[in-house]
Design brief:
The protein is an alpha/beta fold. Helix content is 41%, strand content 15%. Strand 3, helix 5 and strand 4 form a beta-alpha-beta unit.
Length: 556
């Protein structure tokens, strides 16, 4: 605290009847100090607070610490100076060691408290596993977050015997009321009564919703979680959840809905999901039509097919438009109700418009194709237009016997590319400490959507691709497109088959562009090959490394 803040803070402390504890999330929301400096800051804070509240506890999380600073802090914690100031340690997001490792390395005598992020869906401690690109662009990081099964699994994993002797509970990381069901799940499981997630959701619904619809709402909460599993295009649960929501509307009646902000919130989310799916399906349909037209340029003429494709890409049929308008209107009605009943900022302080501004965000290649077709149409000659069409359509072409993979594309089975080694996976590794995860950037509509979601790994782990069923006698070329948001990415080591180095100190190109490697001709001698990307060890923060969007494996 500076001199100007001290008098006001002292008055605040003096007027508080009690202050039980202060939690300092080091490195989250600002830089993490070197351990000795962090301890000095905490000592000053303690000295300022404890004359007013002698029993006030000071809790510290180790967010954003490098390997080196973690080691130093664990040494420092085992000193009288630290023990006189710090009450306990918190396991929170952006910590480069798992909760189990934190428990193992924290000196005896310090209780440990969990700080689970139950509010965010991406770029967070527990991201939605293998989230479809369409959801990431529209729901973004904070939304009506209804993930009862996922959080029941996480809370149960973190309540097992590994943690029971040291971990004393949790204080969740939340940015509003939109994660309400996740709060209920964590609180119920932390109570130690070991209820099933189905019992928790049933009791939550019977407590908080009219008896005429409580059973239906309980079903809807699980369905909303299922909406986000697998491809947003093919998931039938989205339409089924909308049908159930409309049944709930009829049974509850307007008065009950207007009196219950939770009901408004879950109905809003249902209509949101349905709007995204309808639009996504339409986008994919017109993209297929446009690509088919463009593929006929040699027979019909480039100028002709370009004009036809642009018409398909730009004009939305009245039947589709009417559905989207209806869903949009219902969303806005619930938005208004929520503004009156609880206020949007209380629901989501980070996304106070409930993501309405993202409802029409680009979620496919439709905008990119429309812009590309428009630009190609302006080329001066038929030959140039034809060549540009071939280049547009041939992006994924790896040649005869080759493989193209958009690694982060989610299939109907709910998984990303089959060539990605998934490691432990999210059921046992929900924080993705030891498993690759899918990450997302904001699609501007001017480039391919595939550029804006990619596979990545955290901290010191490696990312591995595996290509089975190759021809042993063929010489292959590997082409990779790395996501690169700045020219200062860390240097990577790229290896084949567990040891053959094909690049060391490799920095992904910026601006982004594919890079190719001619592999040794014996690379696939076993009928398969593996590729591994490894970052430098021990770096800071919530590091993401080895960020790869697409891969081409072709004969050379």
């Amino acid at each position: 605290l500076d001199d100007k803040q001290r008098p006001e803070s002292a008055r605040l402390l003096a007027n508080m009847s009690r202050l039980n504890s202060v939690f300092v999330p080091a490195g989250d929301g600002g830089p993490s100090f070197p351990p000795a400096q962090e301890l000095a800051v905490l000592a000053n804070l303690s000295a300022f607070i404890r004359p007013f509240h002698p029993e006030c506890e000071i809790w510290l999380s180790l967010q954003g610490y490098s390997d080196e600073n973690l080691a130093l802090m664990f040494q420092l914690l085992d000193t009288p100076a630290a023990r006189s100031v710090i009450t306990g340690i918190v396991g929170g997001p952006h910590t480069r060691i798992s909760l189990a490792e934190l428990v193992r390395r924290t000196p005896p005598g310090y209780p440990i408290r969990q700080y689970p992020d139950i509010t965010h869906t991406l770029s967070c401690q527990f991201p939605v596993p293998y989230w479809d690109f369409a959801w990431s662009q529209t729901h973004s990081r904070q939304n009506v977050n209804c993930l009862p099964r996922m959080h029941a699994n996480i809370a149960t994993l973190r309540g097992n015997a590994t943690y029971q002797t040291r971990v004393i509970g949790f204080g969740s990381y939340s940015e509003g009321a939109s994660d309400d069901i996740n709060k209920a799940v964590w609180a119920a499981i932390a109570s130690g009564t070991t209820p099933s997630v189905y019992d928790i959701v049933d009791e939550y619904s019977r407590l908080l919703f009219p008896s005429t619809v409580s059973a239906q709402v309980a079903r809807l909460l699980f369905m909303l979680e299922e909406n986000w599993v697998g491809s947003a295009n093919t998931n039938p649960m989205v339409a089924q959840s909308l049908s159930l929501a409309q049944e709930i509307e009829g049974l509850a009646g307007n008065a009950s809905i207007e009196a219950n902000w939770r009901l408004q919130m879950y109905l809003y989310r249902t209509y949101f999901d349905s709007h995204v799916q309808v639009r996504y399906r339409y986008d994919l349909d017109v993209l297929a039509q446009a690509r088919a037209l463009l593929g006929q340029w040699r027979e019909s003429g480039a100028s002709t097919v370009l004009a036809q494709a642009l018409e398909v890409l730009r004009v939305v049929p009245e039947s589709v438009r009417n559905i989207l308008v209806h869903l949009n209107d219902r969303l806005e009605e619930y938005w208004v109700q929520l503004s009156k009943s609880i206020h949007i900022v209380v629901l989501q302080c980070q996304e106070p418009d409930l993501n309405l501004a993202l409802l029409h965000a680009p979620i496919s290649d439709r905008s990119f194709y429309a812009g590309s077709v428009h630009n190609i149409s302006a080329l001066p000659s038929e030959a140039e237009r034809g060549a540009a069409i071939d280049a547009l359509l041939g992006w994924e072409d790896a040649g005869p016997g080759g493989i193209y993979a958009e690694l982060a594309r989610i299939g109907p089975d709910g998984l990303p590319s089959r060539y990605l080694d998934l490691g432990q996976g999210p059921h046992t590794d929900p924080a993705f400490y030891y498993s690759p995860l899918i990450f997302y950037a904001t699609n501007d509509g001017a480039h391919r959507a595939s550029l804006y979601h990619f596979t990545t790994i955290l901290y010191d782990n490696s990312l591995t691709l595996r290509f089975p069923e190759l021809e042993p006698a063929v010489c292959y070329r590997l082409k990779l497109l790395f996501w690169a948001s700045n020219p200062n990415d860390l240097p990577l080591t790229l290896t084949l088959n567990g040891g053959v180095v094909i690049a060391s100190q490799f920095v992904p190109p910026f601006p982004m562009q594919p890079v190719s490697f001619d592999l040794p001709c014996d690379a696939a001698a076993a009928g398969s090959l593996s590729f591994t990307c490894t970052p430098p060890q021990g770096s800071n923060g919530n590091d993401r490394n080895c960020q790869i969007t697409s891969v081409w494996l072709s004969r050379r």
